[in-house]
Amino acid sequence: MRDDRLCDGNLPLEPDAFVGRSTELAELSRLLEHSRLVTVTGPGGIGKSRLAARAALGTGAWRVELAPVRDPEFVDYAVVEAFGLTDHTTRLPRETLLAHLTEPGRELLLILDGFEHLVDACAELVTDLLSRVPGLRVLAVGRRPLSVAGERVFALEPLAPDEAVELFVDRAVRQGVSAAADPDVRELCRRLDGIPLAVELAAGRLRALSPGQLLERLDDRFRLLTGGGRDALPRHRTLRTAIGWSHELCTPQERLLWSRLSVFAGPFDLEAVEYVCVGNGLAEQDVLDVLTELLAQSVVGREETATGVRYRMLDTVRAYGADWLEATGDAARLRRRHRDWYLGLATWCELDWFSPRQAEVAARVEAELPNLRDALDHCLADPDEAHLGQYLAGSLWFYWAGCGRLSEGRHWLEQAVRLESDNELSRLKALWVLGYVAILQGDHVPALAALHECREEAELSANPTAVAYAEHRTGCLALVTDDMPRAETLLRSALERYRDIGELNSNVLMGQVELAMTRAFQGDLPEAVRLCQDVRRVCEDHGERWTRSYALYVLAYAAWSKGELRAARELLTDCLGAAHAFHDLLGSVLSIELLALITAAEGDPAEAAVLQGAAAAMWPSVGLPLFGSAYYNAPHELCEAMAREGLGDERYEECVRAGGRLGREAAVARALGRPLEALPSPRGPARHTQGAVAMQEPAASPTRKGGETAG
């Protein structure tokens, strides 16, 4: 006899509103329409069960809760029990189940929820049922795939920021609290990774704590985020229990790697894991297999980036692993290995900056920035490692100066040079890099102090490399403060020193560009062009794009001075495209300033004023506009005078305001005369992992007592 109850399903009514997930819900529903087996995967508390139940709503779905089942032999019994079937014969539960499911015309959806600790038994059951029950579809919900034929895997990500806030506010209302206007809510949800369980548990604390107080206590999130409803599954009542459930399912090696991966502050790649996490129970040759299992169990996520395949852990999962790492007593060793890897990475990236891989180096450092910051913090917090922090901060000069990170670089460099260290070379490098960054920001007094100290100490220790860099950057300071004779003298001397010691890199070539600028400002355009054509040739020989863009800027200035407007525009277009690709805000805004003048000279004062407004809006993110230099400011003033004459003051100001509202991306697109989507891709095209700076061992980094770092 047909059991009509099977058509009704057993999904309970949801007591709470279902918030967000519209995109995920649509995609999961689509998969269920076209596949007989779909598995929703993701870490604990991510909302897999709620999404699956929502997608199955109204379909007559039957859910089997497998978390309480510990013995694989009882999986079949759990399914039979969920259907409410009774059988007093000697048949096995699988036979009872098949007898009821194979009745002609029957179609239903079976949800297997929480199967991750019973993967083999569930995989065998699903394979058997799907092969023998034509009208059956299965929606599996767990922290890893079943890995059977025909399975479609749907990996669930955390809530989007707006949806996480919406969920928090909705659950706050249940507590009788209005949190909609609280500015701390968004940051709280971000710190909780947008994990629905964590967000709901945090909202449950609002009877006692404000969102701001919750933020202050998040370092102890596992104690704070407890108190799930009595009707919640046991593994969902506290955040620690939810994450701990995944931990219980791991083998000892998987738990070990999980704890060690917690030393990474952001995304990481396989090479880093194979160096940092090995030893004391985990061999290098085993790392890939163990990492693959953590990926399968949703402990670690995988993503494709411009630098290849990378892995990441949610902060909450990382925090759980960090607790275990501390308990093992191995945390200090792991942090040292993490520091060593990123010191080596910075060393290789600095060397590779002067090469055809420049765009890849920029992308690699951008991707590794959270880990590099962590390494800097680690070094600068320990007086015995101060020289390593100075070395690391100085080695990243190309990133601070060339990739739009002047303010952050200044922060780290100032911290580094305040510290005493027993490695003079590291400190000398940090000093001249600090001076360079401060110059680019237009902060001249601190720049001069840092460079003067560097020069004095370098001469006392007879360090010709550090002397050359200090002299070079002092010449650069003279350039932007309009002392052209002194700038020319210092820059020529520095270039001679570079030749004597055999130094050739982006810095050296930039010194030649700066010398060319002094000649151009003094009216010697042929010499400026000769110098920059030479730089352009060397850069193209070495695949260098960043310094080349500044050489193009000087060549464009010379072309404009000679009335060659078309050539000047072509050069500036190339220059701006390269600067934007590196996120070099200084190079970008200088190019736009000069393009505004070219535009005015071409007879379009309105567009010139718009570009001036766009540049004015960009300068605060760089530093002192046009360095406060009369020479650099002269083209700006000429452009403004031409535009005002053509438009009148009121119309000019209106166009400037319009340019100021563009935003950086739109401003660059406008200056290049291209749509936004046609802009050069920042950091260059996507690459596979080995296409960037691939490393198996960290590059030589300074020991506690030595290591050349000054140039």
Give the structure's gist in a few sentences.
It is built from 33 helices and seven strands. The chain is mostly helical. The strands form two sheets. The protein has a five-stranded parallel beta sheet, with helices on both faces.
Summary keywords:
two-stranded antiparallel ribbon; 711 residues; mainly alpha; disordered C terminus; five-stranded parallel β-sheet; 33 helices
Describe the overall structure.
- With 711 residues, this protein is mainly α.
- Helix content is 60%, strand content 5%.
- The protein has 33 helices and seven strands.
- The strands form two sheets. Strands 2-3-4-1-5 form a five-stranded parallel sheet, sandwiched between helices. A two-stranded antiparallel sheet has the order 6-7.
- Helix 3 (75-82) runs parallel beside helix 4 and helix 17 runs antiparallel to helix 18 (386-395).
- The longest helix has 23 residues, at 331-353.
- Residues 1-6 and 682-711 have low confidence and may be disordered.
**Chain-averaged pLDDT:** 86
Strand content: 5-15%
Number of H/I helices = 33
Poorly predicted runs are 1-6, 682-711
The count of β-strands is: 7
- Rg calculated over all Cα atoms: 31 Å
Rounded to the nearest angstrom, the distance between the terminal CA atoms is 86 Å
Shape: elongated
- The quaternary structure here is single chain
Give helix % range: 55-70%
- What would you call the structural class? mainly alpha
Largest sheet: 5 strands, parallel
